[in-house]
Amino acid sequence: MTSENNIRTLVVDDSDFFAEMTADTLTQQHDIDSVAANSADEALDRLDAEGFDCVVSDYEMPEMDGLELLESIRETNSSIPFILLTGRGDEETASAAIKAGVADYLLKLEVVEDKQYGRLANRIENVVSQERTRRKFESLVADSPDGIVHLTTDGTILSVNPSMADWLDDDPDTLIGQTLDDVMDSEAATQRVEAGRNAVESGTATRTEDAVGGRHYQNQFIPVDSHREIDTFQLVSRDITERVERQHELERQNERLEEFASVVSHDLRNPLNVAQGAVDLLTEPADSEEAELVAKIDRSLDRMGCIIEDVLALARQGRTVNDPQETELSTLASTAWTWIEAEQSSMSVESSAELAADSGRVQDLLANLFRNAIEHNDGEVEIEVGLLESGEGFYIADDGTGVDGDADDVFEMGYSSTQDGTGFGLAIVEQVAEAHGWEVSLTDSDSGGACFEVTSVELHD
């Protein structure tokens, strides 16, 4: 085999003149490095000693004809492309050539008398390209950590890669010819074969997930176009057990965290409500000092109430979004804006698109960012929501003075640049983003204010 950019061809013909002329023409006029051999025996010797990408052989030769030469070559080289030049244009010869496994065949007189060497060169380039592509694919399949098996629509195994053979605890050669339900859980095998049959009937690749022997798998079923008399498909299985177990553990942790936060907030609210009620029942303070003390107690109680609400929100917002729904960004932003007390500020949607999300939680994300812009700036603030130019997400920008501190620190739980802030608002924003598989970052807006960019978002027009 030669380099990827060169093709080396062996031309075999018992006519010295034709063999040399064909090889020279392919080399000089079509940049195909070609060598002539004047007999089948010489061709076999050259193939043993040198590397070639393709063999072009005459059919009618003494001692060994072209198809017999191909049979001999296949004993040691099962895949090198073989193009047959024949003087016969009858169906019997064509049928015998196809059955023997030739990559292509041409009428010799058309090549010689009509000087169609360009046509021959094109055929050589095509079959060599196909063979190189096949080898690359087989290499990828063989080295893939995913289990890959080629099946008929009745479940018969035609080929299997090492990873799948390891999962089935058998030798690849032994598995060929058996049915899938012979070598794995019959219920799962039946479901996989049925999914593959549906993929073949629809002509579209499909995906499923299942569990076999305590392991979880993501399966892809790909219809295969081939010259076989029966329909076939390729099954690609990926072991996702660790991912599923992590997700289940995360869900359990989130449930425990929410339960803990609910219990704590309940236990805190009772004494908090008692204290708030006592403050409300206090008579009018006798002097300004007492009035200031009552006001301080009232503000502290309000702040404790905000912290309790934020702790609950933080516990709930981190849960992974398992069932996102398509919704319009502009609708989410408009709804979130109605939750904000912002008489002196405004919000506009510069551009919008649909995205798959948990609407309630994304509205919480937007509301927290709107509130953050208003609380960290004095006076009127203009807030803008739009799509990033990269197409990877959306932004929330304001024309304020920007956010004090390091861009990474602002998402830390408890971080706040204002005395009245709880430090949970931007932490909640990050939790909501991560629950969707998104990322959120802080940068400067075009007007010098703050700009929060939410990326890794799949947007739809």
From TrEMBL:
<dbReference type="InterPro" id="IPR000014">
    <property type="entry name" value="PAS"/>
</dbReference>
<dbReference type="InterPro" id="IPR005467">
    <property type="entry name" value="His_kinase_dom"/>
</dbReference>
<dbReference type="InterPro" id="IPR050736">
    <property type="entry name" value="Sensor_HK_Regulatory"/>
</dbReference>
<dbReference type="InterPro" id="IPR003594">
    <property type="entry name" value="HATPase_dom"/>
</dbReference>
<dbReference type="InterPro" id="IPR003661">
    <property type="entry name" value="HisK_dim/P_dom"/>
</dbReference>
<feature type="domain" description="PAS">
    <location>
        <begin position="133"/>
        <end position="203"/>
    </location>
</feature>
<feature type="domain" description="Response regulatory">
    <location>
        <begin position="8"/>
        <end position="123"/>
    </location>
</feature>
<dbReference type="Pfam" id="PF02518">
    <property type="entry name" value="HATPase_c"/>
</dbReference>
<feature type="modified residue" description="4-aspartylphosphate">
    <location>
        <position position="58"/>
    </location>
</feature>
<dbReference type="InterPro" id="IPR035965">
    <property type="entry name" value="PAS-like_dom_sf"/>
</dbReference>
<dbReference type="Pfam" id="PF08448">
    <property type="entry name" value="PAS_4"/>
</dbReference>
<feature type="domain" description="Histidine kinase">
    <location>
        <begin position="263"/>
        <end position="455"/>
    </location>
</feature>
<protein>
    <recommendedName>
        <fullName>histidine kinase</fullName>
        <ecNumber>2.7.13.3</ecNumber>
    </recommendedName>
</protein>
<keyword id="KW-0902">Two-component regulatory system</keyword>
<dbReference type="InterPro" id="IPR036097">
    <property type="entry name" value="HisK_dim/P_sf"/>
</dbReference>
<dbReference type="Pfam" id="PF00072">
    <property type="entry name" value="Response_reg"/>
</dbReference>
<keyword id="KW-0597">Phosphoprotein</keyword>
<keyword id="KW-0808">Transferase</keyword>
<dbReference type="InterPro" id="IPR011006">
    <property type="entry name" value="CheY-like_superfamily"/>
</dbReference>
<feature type="region of interest" description="Disordered">
    <location>
        <begin position="194"/>
        <end position="214"/>
    </location>
</feature>
<keyword id="KW-0418">Kinase</keyword>
<dbReference type="InterPro" id="IPR013656">
    <property type="entry name" value="PAS_4"/>
</dbReference>
<dbReference type="GO" id="GO:0000155">
    <property type="term" value="F:phosphorelay sensor kinase activity"/>
</dbReference>
<dbReference type="InterPro" id="IPR001789">
    <property type="entry name" value="Sig_transdc_resp-reg_receiver"/>
</dbReference>
<dbReference type="Pfam" id="PF00512">
    <property type="entry name" value="HisKA"/>
</dbReference>
<dbReference type="InterPro" id="IPR036890">
    <property type="entry name" value="HATPase_C_sf"/>
</dbReference>
